[in-house]
Structures are given as C-alpha cells and as structure tokens.
C-alpha cells in the first residue's frame, strides 16, 4: 500500500521488471514501491553504477514510437525485391557466359518478382492512386525515394530484357517488324540485362537501409547488420529459385550462389544476435518473430546443405531451392515482425537510449542531453 | 547556440530557407498545466480531426492515450507518491550538476530548501499533467525520410504534411523518434475504415478527411499564416502552453526553470531546449517535472538519418559483396 488513495483502486499488476518480457504493466497510479532508492538517477551522476539498472518508469506501458503501417505486402516485397535483384545478376552472368536457359529463367524471374513486389508496395500505400508522387523529387535522405527510383529503373530494364525471352518463348510469332526484333534481341535485351544486373545488388540491399533508417528500435539497432543479412538472403533465394527452374547442367553458378548466400545468411544472423545488445536483439528472439527467424534459419541451413549434397540431382536441387526460398521469405517476415513487436513495449526504446545516454555521460560527453537542468 | 548539423544529408536549417529568427515554437510548461484538456479539444475542433471513440482507459484521467493521426495534442496524467516525487527531485538535481563537473557533488550545489516539503498543497502525492505535441524538430526524422516531399519545412521553421501530396507510404511513421506522426486509419491493405458519415456537429455532415494520409500537428500553419496563434495555445487557460519566437520560448523556459529551482523544485528540467541533442533541438520545448520516459517521451531521441551515411557505406559494401559472390559463382560454377 503506497498511500491512502490506493484504497479506492483496483489492484494493479506489478510493474514489469527486466527480463520478464511481455507488454509493460501499467505504471503510474498507485505504483508499488519496487524501485530501489535512486534508481532514477540514471544520468551518469553516480559513478558506482556501471551496470545500468534497467528499470524505468513508462507511461502506462504505452509505446514511445509508432510502428509504420507496413503489413504483409511489405514483407513480401522485401523477399521479392531480393529475388529480383539476385536473379538479374544471375541473368547477367548467364548472358555473359552463354547459358541460355539460366539467362531466360533468371530474366523472367527478375521481372516477375519485381512486378509482383511493386504491386505489393502499391497495395500497402495509404493512397495507392498517388503512387507516382514517389517520383516528384529525388531525395538523398529518403531511402524510400531512392528505392522507388531504383525499383522503377530496374523494372524497366528487367522488362526489356525479359521481352526478348518472351518473344522467343512464343516462337517469335508476334508480327513484329524484323528490324524491331533484331534490335530487341541483339542490342536492347543484352544492354537492359546488363543494366538490370548492375542495379540488382542495390535493389537487394536498399530495403535494409530503408528499415535501418527508422526510429524503430529493432531495425535501427540492426542497421549495420541488415544490409549483409538482406544481400545474403537475396543471394540464397535467387540461387534457390534458379535451381528450381533451371536444369542442373546450367545451374552450376546458381548452386554456388545459393550455398554462399545460405552460409552468409546464417553467419550474419549469428553475428547480429551476438553483437546487438541484449534488449535490442530480444524482438528477434521472442514471439512470432522468433519463430519466423528460427524456422528461417532451419530452412536456410537445410537448403544450403541440400544444395551441397544433392544440388546436382534435379529433385534435390528443386527441394533445396524451395527450402532456400522459404527460408529467405521467413527471414524477411521475421525482420518485419520483430520491428512491429519492438514498438509494443516501451522498454525496447527507453532502455537502450538510457544506456547510451549514461555511457556518453560516463565518457564525459554531457552536452548533448535532450533533458537539461539549467 | 549554433545549430549543429548531424550530417550533410539530413535536412537542417542551413539547407532550407527559413530565417532562424523567424522560427516559431511552443513552450509547454507542465508545472502549471491543470489537465483541463482545452488544448486537445481546441486542436480537434480547429483541425476537424475525427473522433477516436469514447472508451475509458483507466489510466488516470487520460482517455486519449497518445498522439496520433487524429490526436495532435495529448494531455498525459501521471499520479505519483512521495517516493517517486523524491526520485524525480533527485534525478533533476543530478541533472543540474551535469555540465559543471568542477563544482563537485551536484547535490551540494543545487538550490534547495532545507527540511520541509516544498509542495504545500500535496505533500505525499502529486499529479503530473503534460500536454504533448509534435516536436517540430530541427532535424526532423519524418521530413528526412519522406519520399514524396509531402512533408516540408515552413517559413515558420515548423514541419507540415501536404495532405494532397502524401501517398501514405508510412515511412515517416517509422522515422519519427517521438511516435508523433501516424497514417490516418484506412486499414492499410484491408480497408477497415468505417468513420464516414455524421460527426459531432448536429445537422452538419463532416466526413473524415485525409484518410490514408500521414497526419500530425501543423503548429496551426493555417492560423499562423493569418497571424493568429495556434488553437491549443489560444485555448490554454493557464498559459501552460506558450507560443512565439523560438528564442523567446527558450528564454522563458530557462527563466521558469530558474524560478522553480529557486523554490527547491529541482525535479524541474527542460526537454528539447538543447540544440546539441539528437534531433538538433525541438520546436516544442517542454518543462517537465520528472524524467522524460515517465511522460512517454524518449530519453535520448536521435534522428535516424544522422546515421544514414554510415548505413549507406555498409550497404555499398554488402552490395559489392553480393556482386562479387555472383562473379565468384560463375567462375566456380563453370567447373561444377
């Protein structure tokens, strides 16, 4: 019993302590005396408290930052953008090393994934009819803006490259003038394929910057890891897709890329989990995001091992490729979900911020505190 | 104090065309807030923001919850016992000591009133009330990441959304370190908005405007244009919300802080008055009576774009690695 006013209240749940997880309990009214004396002095004035006491008062456990209105289509786009980028690189490689089937399949995969991904992006807009406003400006500080330009340019190039393949697939039956056909196959498609290939890696990686460049605690904490995770995931997925679509005798490079991607994916995930601080990495471990990330890792490992052991058999290659694709998709949905989870509990925002503030102040840097006492 | 740019990518006053001396700002002095919510009501009425429901939260007198697309002023209510009042006083006192390490123990240098409790009205209990609002940051995360240019810096130094340009991509929602801006509910992919139709004005049908578009405080851009004060400040009966030139607001904030400190109320501290903080100082300065997180404010906000160049470098490295992996795959794959 804290004071007389508590007599009139319903009992409140005890305020959440560190490590208990779950949404923060109600703070404020009638709060129990659970904090040690002086726990509020997390401002660096107390030399002896080297390990920060992470308990803090929250505003009724309410979120401090908001989750963006990004739903499943954004997760799908993260995956599809990676597949498109990796496929265009494979297509360029196949084009240069004379692997016609791998080239055709990769080009078709690139435009299909980019197209489907674009539709997913548009679907998630609050006002889809204003899609073209993305191209009003060129803005270096906005990864979403540069990414839109990148995706538009990539899709255009991938479409031109794929047009030649579609023409071949349909037996060149479309009544095109011979000159147009010649230009398309001899000049336009190879050039567009090369440009799309050059834009492939940026397309696969920019979404990582887009996510890192936010105030979302889970994404922002992982801002220097996400680029490597996303390109690894994209490599594994696009290699895996080519292993499904392309006969084994032409899919050698795809197998190597898929296996490399899988190894890097697992390594980067491990590095991320060990290098982020305990609180910031928690959203990637718990709940739905944790399940998605766990299954993603299992599938990527299974796909990677399958690629190495059975990649030269048609069925083995297809199964391994499918596992890698599924693993990549789950990785992306896991990252998206981790971000959404990290805003539900204010501790993911407040605790790392208090810790870094205290750290700066211990280092003698006291001039940049947003809270000032004079 | 000079304005510090966090980097050359981030938008900051040297890049944009408002004169520093014309920057307008709020000063919200929570020590005189009485929690009447006149600001909330005035804001909602003036901006014709849709109603969000009439649920009782059970969180003291706060049934609004937080700032959002439909709530541009939000009054927080916090009930505290003697223990927490003392903690707040202690943390505030320590804050006074910061920045002058040569003076020794901060507790000794802080102004204090010996012995008796300094709150004659409520010795062992207090109610904190604070009217929260968009911070109109110097380095605004929402503005930096906006891909359409819908968010812009006005001639008053404030940050405003152009309703007719925003396409509702939601990046600004993730970009804001304070959780202020939000997309007005349309349900995203699965449309679930049902708020069409009659509103609270009898006989007048007003539909919710700007559905699916990012919305936040404009610092009453329309009123400022006509030489009026913001609606919330106009309605505030205790001058807890003050409005004017930012320099003047800063001066008043420091003045008020000194008065409270001289009364022994060392729990008082300013929030957003430091141009060297992670957002370059805010256009909404607060005088708080406890740590920011108690009010649901971040204790060390940082505009995410400050780290964008470093992120871009990592991304370039990762992209180069991916391209190299593909090259390697074709070199090795040719032999397998």
UniProtKB/TrEMBL annotation, chain A:
Keywords: Cell membrane, Membrane, Transmembrane, Transmembrane helix. The chain crosses the membrane at residues 74-96, 108-126, 146-166, 187-212, 224-245. It comes from the Bacteria. It is found in: Cell membrane. InterPro entries: Electron_transfer_protein (IPR052049), NrfD-like (IPR005614). The keyword Transmembrane helix applies. Residues 20-30 have a biased composition (Gly residues). The keyword Acetylation does not apply. Coiled coil: none annotated. It is a multi-pass membrane protein. Belongs to the NrfD family. PANTHER family: PROTEIN NRFD. This is Polysulfide reductase NrfD. It comes from Corynebacterium suedekumii.
């Amino acid at each position: 019993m804290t004071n007389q006013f508590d007599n009139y209240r319903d009992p409140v749940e005890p305020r959440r302590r560190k490590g208990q997880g779950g949404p923060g309990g109600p703070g404020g009214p009638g709060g129990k005396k659970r904090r040690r004396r002086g726990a509020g002095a997390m401002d660096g004035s107390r030399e002896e408290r080297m390990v920060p006491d992470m308990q803090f008062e929250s505003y009724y456990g309410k979120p401090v930052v908001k989750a963006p209105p990004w739903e499943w289509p954004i997760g799908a786009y993260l995956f599809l953008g990676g597949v498109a980028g990796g496929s265009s690189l494979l297509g360029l490689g196949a084009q240069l090393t004379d692997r016609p089937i791998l080239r055709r399949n990769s080009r078709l995969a690139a435009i299909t994934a980019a197209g489907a991904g674009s539709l997913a992006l548009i679907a998630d807009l609050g006002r889809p009819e204003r899609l073209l406003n993305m191209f009003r400006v060129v803005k270096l500080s906005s990864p979403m803006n540069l990414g839109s330009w990148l995706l538009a340019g990539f899709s255009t190039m991938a479409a031109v490259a794929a047009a030649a393949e579609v023409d071949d697939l349909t037996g060149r039956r479309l009544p095109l003038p011979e000159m147009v056909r010649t230009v398309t196959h001899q000049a336009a498609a190879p050039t567009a394929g090369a440009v799309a290939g050059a834009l492939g890696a940026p397309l696969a990686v920019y979404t990582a910057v887009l996510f890192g460049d936010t105030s979302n605690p889970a994404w922002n904490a992982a801002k220097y890891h996400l680029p490597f995770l996303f390109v690894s995931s994209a490599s594994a997925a696009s290699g895996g897709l080519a292993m499904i679509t392309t006969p084994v005798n032409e899919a050698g490079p795809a197998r190597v890329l898929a296996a490399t991607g899988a190894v890097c994916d697992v390594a980067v995930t491990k590095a991320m989990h060990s290098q982020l601080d305990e609180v910031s990495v928690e959203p990637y471990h718990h709940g739905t995001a944790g399940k998605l990330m766990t299954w993603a890792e299992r599938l990527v490992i299974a796909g990677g091992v399958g690629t190495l052991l059975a990649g030269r058999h048609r069925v083995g290659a297809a199964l391994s490729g499918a596992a890698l694709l599924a693993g990549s998709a789950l990785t992306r949905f896991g990252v998206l979900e981790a971000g959404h989870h990290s805003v539900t509990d204010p501790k993911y925002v407040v605790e790392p911020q208090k810790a870094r503030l205290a750290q700066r102040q211990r280092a003698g840097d006291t001039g940049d505190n947003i809270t000032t006492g004079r | 104090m000079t304005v510090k740019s966090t980097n050359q990518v981030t938008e900051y006053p040297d890049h944009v065309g408002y004169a520093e001396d014309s920057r307008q700002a709020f000063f919200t002095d929570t020590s005189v807030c009485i929690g009447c919510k006149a600001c909330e009501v005035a804001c909602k009425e003036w901006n014709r923001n849709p109603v969000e429901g009439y649920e009782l939260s059970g969180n003291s007198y706060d049934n609004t919850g937080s700032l959002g697309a439909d709530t541009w002023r939000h009054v927080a209510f916090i009930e505290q016992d003697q223990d927490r009042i003392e903690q707040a006083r202690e943390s505030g006192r320590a804050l006074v000591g910061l920045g002058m390490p040569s003076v020794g123990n901060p507790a000794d240098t802080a102004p204090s009133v010996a012995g008796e409790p300094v709150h004659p009205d409520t010795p062992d209990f207090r109610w904190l009330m604070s009217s929260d609002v968009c911070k109109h940051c110097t380095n605004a995360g929402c503005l930096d990441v906006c891909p359409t240019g819908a968010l812009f810096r006005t001639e008053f130094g404030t940050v405003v959304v152009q309703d007719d340009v925003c396409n509702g991509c939601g990046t600004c929602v993730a970009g804001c370190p304070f959780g202020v801006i939000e997309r007005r509910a349309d349900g995203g992919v699965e449309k679930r908005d049902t708020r069409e139709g009659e509103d609270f004005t009898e006989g007048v049908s007003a539909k919710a405007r700007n559905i699916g578009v990012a919305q936040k405080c404009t610092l009453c851009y329309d009123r400022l244009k006509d030489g009026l004060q913001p609606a919330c400040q106009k309605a505030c009966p205790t001058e807890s919300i003050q409005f004017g030139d930012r320099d003047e607001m800063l001066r008043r904030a420091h003045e008020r802080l000194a008065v409270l400190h001289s009364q022994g109320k060392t729990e008082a501290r300013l929030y957003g008055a430091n141009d060297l903080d992670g957002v370059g100082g805010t256009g909404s300065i607060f005088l708080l009576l406890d740590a920011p997180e108690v009010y649901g404010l971040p204790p060390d906000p940082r505009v995410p774009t400050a780290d964008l160049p470093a992120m871009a470098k990592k991304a370039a490295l990762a992209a180069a690695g991916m391209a190299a992996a593909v090259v390697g795959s074709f070199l090795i794959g040719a032999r397998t």
